[in-house]
Predict the 3D structure of the following.
Amino acid sequence: MVKRWIPVLSLFLLAPLVAEFLLGNLPVTMLIALISLAPLYGGGALLIRELSRRLRLGWTGIALLGLAFAVVQEAFVTGSLFDPGYASIPMTDYAYLPGLGVSAWWTVFVLTLHSAWSVCAPIAVIEALSGSRDPWLGRAGLGAAAALFAAGIVMSRAFTASPHQPSATQLIVAAASVAVLIGAAALLGRRPSPPAPRNTPAPLAVGAFTLTTGSLFWAITLVAGPALAWPTVAVHLVLAGATLFTLRRWSAGAGWDRRHLLAAAAGGLLTYAWHGFAQPPAVPTPAATDLAGDLLFAAATAGLLVFAAVRLGRARNTSPA
């Protein structure tokens, strides 16, 4: 019974730790924030994982549900999509779309961030370790995950909501976008993957690929950022599309296994690990404390990945031929 709940609790905690702490957005002194962040991120990731496995969706479906999660968070929880001065950023100066009242630069950036790193990467790590694509939760557990997610939305909004009030039209568009993304996940998530290559790349090559694309995503954000808003939007979209297409194609190969899935997620987590050192925390924090926290989370991530790789390697060596 206890073993059955290990992946559930692991995903519930890993998702918020990756999304806010490994990213470097929150310092180690803010771990108390897990009270609201774990239901939001962990409950959301569990809900997405369980629904996708019940509907037999592939990773395209999970990524689209991750986008829906991101819209919910940034439109209805933080309100960042519609706030022209969110986090002291003059959104109207950066690839602004006046008809929607959003910055294309910020929208593409933050939605990709949550779909890829807050949702897909934690699910991939825990699924690789668990070795199961079957649902982990029964109906009651699924209902509990949904309730936790709803509670996380309410609690997180109380702490992080922007004072800016979006228009009714903006909220309707956001709600419609969530519905469209969920529908697209159900439709596209069941489609077969593109033709697979003859030889599935080695897990190390898969990890190097996602580490490269993830690092390029963040490098252009840090170097060009909003100053070159439209080129940054274009590069972000190309990187996201190329990564999803390539991973779908590789994963259709006969040689793809849990080691490859772990490697794909590892590249993303290691990207966040180095980025955490460059990210100023969202709350005032002494430099030494911030650095100590970044080192702690980076080391914990490396330890988790090594543990998972060793465990998968042993399982593969002991499995029958």
The longest strand covers residues 96-97. Residues 2-318 form one domain. The longest helix spans residues 287-318.
